[in-house]
């Protein structure tokens, strides 16, 4: 009796001891990060110049309609992404992650270059739509990360994916803002170039495509297959290393489970908790897509109608500002906070920060308008018209930087956490591709609707002289309300979503016993 009691106590003590974190498989992870970086760069590099680009098309006759046509471009991208996102995830469950990822990179490479030679709105619309068709790597890469991680290092690895998105967005915005129209911006280098004079938007697309080429080359030679049905035959010829993918160890014992999984419907995984997580994620992405589409239009619009009146070059600077703190926040701050609070709580805090940004950001137009009216030192690289070196100038840029940092922290908390939650709620590991594909599809639908709403409502609000809150603030306020609704829905999500599908926790944080029931 005594020995049995002592044995149980010793076993319980060992069970309660926190697991040591598994070292990150940097070899495999570096390849994934190189592949992941390509998509956000090519997606965001058009943001600084899309207002000018669309305004130059023959289809646009009224400057106040530019936001609508720009929103339509972004919407068609999302429509096509929504139509194929779940398909790519499911396809990766069938033929493997590696071929799907490489095919997506090829499609993005071709469509990015073709978009740079757009001379008409129809051409740009078709190419942007094709780009959306090949944008399915995000869901597949999330599945790979879930397959090569375990319960001790999953939060750190998942945090790296939004890091790549934020870095890519920063680089894409900077590339687009600084390299567009090189003939006029850099006449000493490109003044005699007939190609860039004819296609002023080609250079940023070419520069952005180099990252896709790099990801494609690295992926072709170094990317290993991780899907347990495909990894054995592919990786048999690959050299072994100490960080073997998590699922490859279980492949030999999971054949019977795979047969059972194939017989069951993929849609059986849509439990109430899964639906709640996907719905709150979709509403959050709806608001963020309104931000993404509206931001370059709002900051480029004249202060006379409620914008900030900034140039495309300055828009690139502002997009780069928020990326300065991304590395620390993503690599150090988020994993620490997630271990303290859990992924669900981090997600809720991120929603609050994004809602604060959405409501507060449009008030910068008041300060920008005052800057335009003050006759003082001219700083043309900041605004299209005269800016001033005064207290208004310092206040404007101080608030701009603070608000952009708030948005960056909110993005990191919300998007990293929701990626972990979606991975955690998949009841079967074999459904990770389907689950992430389903998430990407619902997100793509939100990306499809958001730009249409924000583009139409922005045009409507600036065409009419409505008072606050129906003026230029209206779309931003609507985004804040959407984020509040998303936060409210998280109250019905149980804390058990902090636990991975296999039953292991998403962090080393100890859960109370009553939360596990």
TrEMBL record:
This is Major facilitator superfamily (MFS) profile domain-containing protein. Residues 1-12, 238-256 have a biased composition (Polar residues). CDD domains: MFS_SLC46_TetA_like. The keyword Transport applies. GO terms for cellular component: membrane. The keyword Chaperone does not apply. The chain crosses the membrane at residues 29-51, 66-88, 100-117, 123-145, 157-179, 199-221, 273-295, 315-337, 349-369, 394-423, 444-461, 473-490. It is found in: Membrane. Residues 1-22, 232-264 are annotated as: Disordered. One of its GO terms (molecular function) is transmembrane transporter activity. Keywords: Membrane, Transmembrane, Transmembrane helix, Transport. Residues 28-497 form the Major facilitator superfamily (MFS) profile domain. It is a multi-pass membrane protein. SUPFAM superfamilies: MFS general substrate transporter. Residues 13-22 have a biased composition (Basic and acidic residues). PANTHER family: MAJOR FACILITATOR SUPERFAMILY (MFS) PROFILE DOMAIN-CONTAINING PROTEIN, MAJOR FACILITATOR SUPERFAMILY DOMAIN-CONTAINING PROTEIN 10.
């Amino acid at each position: 009796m005594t020995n049995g009691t002592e044995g149980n106590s010793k076993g319980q003590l060992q069970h309660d001891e926190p697991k040591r974190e598994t070292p990150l498989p940097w070899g495999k992870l570096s390849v994934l990060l190189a592949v992941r970086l390509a998509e956000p760069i090519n997606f965001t590099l058009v943001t600084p110049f899309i207002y000018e680009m669309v305004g130059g098309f023959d289809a646009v006759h009224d400057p106040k309609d530019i936001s609508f046509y720009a929103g339509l471009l972004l919407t068609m991208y999302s429509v096509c992404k929504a139509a194929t996102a779940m398909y790519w995830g499911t396809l990766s469950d069938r033929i493997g992650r590696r071929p799907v990822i490489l095919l997506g990179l090829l499609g993005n490479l071709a469509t990015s270059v073709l978009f740079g030679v757009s001379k008409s709105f129809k051409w740009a619309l078709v190419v942007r739509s094709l780009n959306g068709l090949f944008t399915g790597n995000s869901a597949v890469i999330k599945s790979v990360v879930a397959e090569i991680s375990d319960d001790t290092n999953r939060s750190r690895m998942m945090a790296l994916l939004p890091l790549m998105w934020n870095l890519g967005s920063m680089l894409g915005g900077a590339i687009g803002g600084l390299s567009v129209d090189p003939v006029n911006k850099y006449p000493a280098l490109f003044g005699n170039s007939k190609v860039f004079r004819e296609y002023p938007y080609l250079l940023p697309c070419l520069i952005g495509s180099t990252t896709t080429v790099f990801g494609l080359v690295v992926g072709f030679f170094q990317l290993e297959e991780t899907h347990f049905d495909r990894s054995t035959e592919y990786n048999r010829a690959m050299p072994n290393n100490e960080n073997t993918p998590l699922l490859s160890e279980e492949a030999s014992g999971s054949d019977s489970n795979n047969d059972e999984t194939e017989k069951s419907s993929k849609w059986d995984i849509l439990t109430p908790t899964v639906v709640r997580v996907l719905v709150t994620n979709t509403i959050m992405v709806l608001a963020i897509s309104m931000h993404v589409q509206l931001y370059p239009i709002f900051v480029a619009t004249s202060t006379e109608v409620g914008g900030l009146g900034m140039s495309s070059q300055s828009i690139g600077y502002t997009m780069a500002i928020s990326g300065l703190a991304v590395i620390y926040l993503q690599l150090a701050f988020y994993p620490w906070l997630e271990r303290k609070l859990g992924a669900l709580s981090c997600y809720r805090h991120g929603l609050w920060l994004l809602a604060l940004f959405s409501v507060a950001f449009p008030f910068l137009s008041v300060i920008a308008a005052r800057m335009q009216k003050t006759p003082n030192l001219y700083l043309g690289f900041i605004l299209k018209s005269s800016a001033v070196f005064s207290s208004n100038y310092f206040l404007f840029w101080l608030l701009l930087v603070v608000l952009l940092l708030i948005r960056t922290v909110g993005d990191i908390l919300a998007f990293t956490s929701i990626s972990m939650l979606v991975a955690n709620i998949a009841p079967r590991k074999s459904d990770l591709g389907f689950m992430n594909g389903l998430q990407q599809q619902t997100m793509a639908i939100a990306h499809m609707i958001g730009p249409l709403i924000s583009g139409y409502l922005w045009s409507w609000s600036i065409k009419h002289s409505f008072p606050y809150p129906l003026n230029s603030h209206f779309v931003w306020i609507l985004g804040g309300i959407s984020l509040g609704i998303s936060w409210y829905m998280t109250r019905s999500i149980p804390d058990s979503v902090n636990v991975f599908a296999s039953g292991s926790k998403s962090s080393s944080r100890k859960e109370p016993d009553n939360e596990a029931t």
